[in-house]
Design goal:
With 245 residues, this protein is an alpha+beta fold. It has one domain: Endonuclease/exonuclease/phosphatase (Deoxyribonuclease I, Chain A), CATH 3.60.10. The protein is 21% helix and 33% strand. It contains five helices and eleven strands, in the order E-H-H-E-H-E-E-E-E-E-H-E-H-E-E-E. Strands 3-4-2-1-11-10 form a six-stranded mixed β-sheet, with helices on one face. A hairpin with a 3-residue loop joins strand 3 and strand 4. Helix 2 crosses helix 3 and helix 4 packs parallel to helix 5. It is globular and about 45 Å long. The two termini are 13 Å apart.
């Protein structure tokens, strides 16, 4: 099973620091350039079986009043999807997470994560998977806050739901590194496995921080773990192949 997680920054297409200023208008209005970026994103996610996306606009003005998830899934050929709305800026944007899948989804659960500032969430689904998977795979698509205290509280909430499933993966923008206290603590308590080498993913044009991760429960093996060198957002995507133990 081929997995990918990506903070797509709503298709704004930041490729260098000055783009935060030069592309600021893309935060509030839709542009043809964003259509082009979303098309490129769709082509890149097409080979993957399960895709977790963060910072997706679910139909605000800056997305042309159309869900970016629908646009990407239509172009990539993923027949099944689930979305989670976490923050709304009235008249401008609808921030959220999304999961795209080749296989049917069950159990869709929308978890609003605790924190000093509202607007972070975790979308959880059960993926039926191919015939060789005896049980569904629970998938968590998450986007954590910036502070360590919030991250630890948020990961505890996520752990409680994941541990109810025999096999699970957690994918997303953790906003913390593999050696950070929140992530190492989560892995220890949940029995999760991290890749031996955690690739740096932020900022995409000169990666210095490993913010984006794919974690798997005991009994699952992650292979071919890598960051894809795609400067279509301020985060690089992370990909892996998942094998049952």
């Amino acid at each position: 099973m081929k997995l990918l997680t990506w903070n797509i920054q709503a298709g704004i297409g930041t490729r260098r620091y000055r783009d935060y200023l030069l592309h600021a208008h893309r935060q509030v209005i839709h542009t043809a350039a964003k259509n082009a970026v979303l098309g490129q994103i769709a082509r890149e996610v097409t080979p993957f079986d399960v895709v977790c996306l963060q910072e997706v606009d679910l139909g605000g003005r800056r997305a042309g009043y159309r869900s970016q998830v629908e646009a990407i899934a239509e172009a990539s050929g993923h027949a099944h999807s689930a979305v989670q709305q976490n923050r709304v800026v009235p008249g401008v944007s609808r921030h959220g997470n999304a999961i795209l899948s080749r296989w049917p989804l069950r159990l869709v659960e929308d978890i609003k994560l605790p924190g000093r500032l509202a607007g972070r969430g975790c979308l959880i689904v059960d993926v039926e998977g191919p015939p060789e998977w005896a049980t569904p795979l629970r998938v968590a698509c998450l986007h954590l806050s910036l502070g360590a205290a919030d991250q630890m509280a948020q990961l505890e909430v996520i752990r409680a739901t994941l541990e109810q499933a025999p096999n699970w993966v957690a994918m997303g923008d953790f906003n913390c590194g593999a050696d950070s206290r929140p992530l190492t603590g989560f892995c220890r308590r949940a029995g999760a496995g991290l890749a031996q080498v955690s690739p740096r993913t932020y900022p995409s044009w000169r990666p210095r921080r490993d913010f984006d991760h794919i974690l798997g429960s005991q009994g699952l093996k992650l292979g071919d773990y890598r960051a894809e060198p795609l400067a279509l957002s301020d985060h690089l995507p992370v990909a892996a192949s998942l094998f049952a133990g």
